[in-house]
Design brief:
The chain is of the alpha/beta class. The protein contains twelve helices and 20 strands. It folds into three domains: 157 residues, P-loop containing nucleotide triphosphate hydrolases (Rossmann fold), CATH 3.40.50; 182 residues, P-loop containing nucleotide triphosphate hydrolases (Rossmann fold), CATH 3.40.50.300; 79 residues, K homology (KH) domain (GMP Synthetase, Chain A, domain 3, 2-Layer Sandwich). A seven-stranded mixed β-sheet has the order 2-3-4-1-7-8-9, sandwiched between helices. It has a six-stranded mixed β-sheet with strand order 11-12-10-13-14-15, with helices on both faces. It is globular. InterPro entries: AAA+_ATPase, G_ENGA, GTP-bd, GTPase_Der, KH_dom-like, KH_dom-like_a/b, P-loop_NTPase, Small_GTP-bd. This is GTPase Der.
């Protein structure tokens, strides 16, 4: 299941950033900060009790000359509203209810999303009565906190996680393959989705960045059921100026997390860029199923071995995903687009593959006989047992004598043996090593 997204919304100076930093640094453990999103920490994966979720700090929603909300801030808030599963609306308990609070509340009510109303700066018991006037916003019971002093944060987090969908649609998720199309702007992600769907479902334009959010489209055919997630392209950090584009970056990373298969789309004329390497690197770190599509292949002049030479060049730059298959297409003309879902399904099948324990241990035993483990210090690595507890991604747990004897090169050798013995093309695999006494 995808991690819930919790957005923090409110006007400036209500203590929103203080709350975000307090939660991120004190009350919950940060699982991962995503580098390169913004210098301000607006995005963090976090845990509370048994729940893992993503926090987003949206920045203040300001009024222009005391009368209208600035358009930029309104757009920023709207993106946060559309992105979030739960919205925390933070107001100032010392300053009291303002016209800006009413306007934000009106936007939030239209979203039909769960809203947690947070009255901040309630630093002592005598200030508790300040919360009553916020019932006028009409969005439920306010919860009082002091972000600066850390008061009431546990109750706040309990209220937030109450809104998470713990039931899920597990049956549907098992049958449905989530495919995220990733890559820099204007490489033809939306065009490919429209070609696969047979309709103009996604706005297509040659202006980079037309797709601001991650958009889901659904398709069912004889291969199965697919959710196609069209993500906004990632630009260089220096070019991510608009707040709205920062949220596009967040949505792209969130789309990768919930995807089974990530399709990196590369512009045939531009080749692989640094941004391509970074974004597919994120998918690789999560051990997702990955395939590479080179689009606009119809614009390349062909000579003998043009495709082979081009493919070798890309593979050298993306050598860390050597397991990924390649497809050369033209989304505009439809060349080879009929193979996209077929290849994605093959990658997914390997991503979801399970190996019987007996066969798995036979393969690893033979691998150890063929190449003896190294001696590190005075100890030699011993592998007692291997098991595969989960799929998506295929995860292998090795029980060994001493973690310090597992050299990186031997770990890579074992991965290659697994890949050679069982077809894991198109998917990352995860390897864990646990010490066990003899």
């Amino acid at each position: 299941m995808a991690k819930p997204i919790v957005a923090m919304v409110g006007r400036p100076n209500v203590g929103k950033s203080t709350l975000f930093n307090k939660l991120a640094g004190k009350r919950i453990s940060i699982v991962q900060d995503t580098p390169g999103v913004t210098r301000d920490r607006i995005y963090a994966e976090a845990e509370w009790l048994t729940h893992t979720f993503t926090m987003i700090d949206t920045g203040g929603i300001e009024r222009d000359n005391g009368s209208v909300i600035v358009e930029k801030m309104r757009r920023q808030a709207q993106i946060a509203i559309e992105t979030a599963d739960v919205i925390t609306f933070i107001v100032d308990g010392k300053e009291g209810l303002t016209a800006a609070d009413h306007e934000v509340a009106q936007m939030l009510r239209k979203s039909k999303k769960p809203i947690v109303l947070v009255v901040n700066k309630i630093d002592n018991l005598k200030d508790e009565d300040n919360a009553y006037e916020f019932y006028n916003l009409g969005i439920g019971d306010p919860i009082t906190i002091s972000a600066s002093q850390g008061l009431g944060l546990g109750d706040l987090l309990d209220r937030i996680v109450e809104h998470f969908n713990t039931d899920g649609d597990n049956g549907e998720d098992e049958e449905n393959i989530n495919i995220a199309l990733i890559g820099k702007p204007n490489v033809g992600k939306s065009s490919l989705i429209n070609k696969l769907l047979g309709e103009d479902r996604v706005i297509v334009s040659n202006i980079p960045g037309t797709t601001r959010d991650a958009i889901d489209s659904y398709i069912e055919n004889d291969l199965g059921r697919f959710t196609l997630i069209d993500t906004a392209g990632l630009r260089r950090k220096s070019k991510v100026k608009e707040e709205i584009e920062r949220y596009s970056v967040i949505r792209t990373l969130a789309a990768i997390e919930r995807a089974d298969v990530c399709i990196l789309m590369v512009d045939a004329e531009d080749g692989v860029t640094e941004q391509d390497e970074k974004i597919v690197g994120y998918a690789h770190e999560l051990n997702k199923a990955i395939m590479v599509i080179v689009n606009k292949w119809d614009l390349i002049e062909k000579e003998t071995k043009t495709l082979d030479n081009y493919k070798k060049d890309i593979q050298s730059k993306l050598n860390f995903i050597s397991y990924a298959p390649y497809l050369f297409i033209s989304a505009k003309t439809g060349q080879r687009t009929h193979k996209v879902l077929q290849m994605a399904k093959e990658c997914y099948n390997n991503y979801n593959k399970r190996i019987a324990t007996g066969i798995l241990n036979d393969v690893i035993s033979k691998a150890v006989l063929m190449k003896e483990p190294p001696v590190v210090g005075l100890r030699r690595l011993k592998i007692y047992y291997v098991t595969q507890p989960v799929t998506k991604p295929p995860t292998f747990v090795f029980f060994i004598n001493d973690y310090n004897t597992m050299h990186f090169s031997y770990q890579r050798y074992l991965e290659n043996q697994l890949r050679n013995s069982f077809d894991f093309s198109g998917t990352g695999i995860k390897m864990e090593f646990r010490e066990r006494k003899e």
